[in-house]
Amino acid sequence: MMNRNYIFLTLLMLVLAIGTVFLNKETELKQIEPAKLMQEIIQPTRYVTTDQVAKMIIKGDPSLMLVDVRSEDEFDAFALPNSINIPLDSLLNEDNLSYFGIPGTKIVFISDDAIKADQVWVLTKRLGYKSTYVMLGGLNKWMETIIDPVEPSADEPYTAHETYSFRKGAQMYFTGAEAEVEGTKAKVEVRRKEKTTVAAGGC
After folding, report:
1. Using the 8-state DSSP alphabet, how is residue 90 labeled?
2. 7, 83, 111, 183: which could join 117 in a potential S-S bond, CB 3.0 to 4.6 Å?
């Protein structure tokens, strides 16, 4: 964990040093002070769990905006329902920045783990955007907890079994997996919209 934190802080310093260089000179944004940004970085509230994201998607939370910061090829191979693709290298494109700062919108950044998403979070926070979050563990954690959850042992706390029960339901929702219902198999309909890809481009 310590090594991971060291790597992240090193990447953070690089992002802060060169990230805003790519901004269009005509773009006027109220940037957050570095000291305040550092205070926000250490707050665990900037993360949301895969369970929280799954619940928001299933409930159709209208305030949720999922932003996948992986490459277009990675996004085309697999992406969460209703997510949009804004690759890290085209984040500062003026059209892409227009997605941020919309009142009442919670933006959750997604990558394979959390490194790219963390970098994007830092950049958008540095530019003064609010209500931005990172999905903790990224899509790797999503596969582990939502797509292929592990059943807890009998002696584990009741809360672990509750969590597992939710995850099994979420697994069926997102994959259309079949479940045994009173001795018969029931197909769960997957309710999802088409993914949207944001046009990439240089700054």
Report:
1. G
2. 111
Give 145's Cβ-side CA count (13 Å radius).
19
Handedness of CA 53, 57, 58, 59 (dihedral sign): positive
Q: Which residues pair with 26 in a beta bridge?
A: none
- Report which DSSP code applies to 114: S
Question: 94-152 pLDDT, tens per residue?
Answer: 888 889 988 999 999 999 998 899 999 988 888 888 899 999 999 999 999 999 999 99
142 contact partners, CB below 8 Å, separation of at least 6: 50, 53, 80, 135
Closest CA to 99 of 108, 70, 22, 194: 108
The domain 2-142 belongs to what CATH superfamily? Answer: Rhodanese-like domain (3.40.250.10)
What is the pTM for the complete model shown? Answer: 0.73
Q: Tell me whether residue 159 is exposed, middle or buried, using C-beta atoms within 10 angstroms of its C-beta: 0 to 12, 13 to 18, 19 or more.
A: exposed
* DSSP type of residue 104: T
Domain ranges (residues) in the chain = 2-142, 149-187
Per-residue tokens: 58: 């299933």
Q: C-alpha distances in angstroms, 135 versus 20, 85, 114?
A: 23, 15, 7
Full 3-state SS string of 127-165: CCCCCEEEECCHHHHHHHHHHCCCCCCCCCCHHHHHHHH
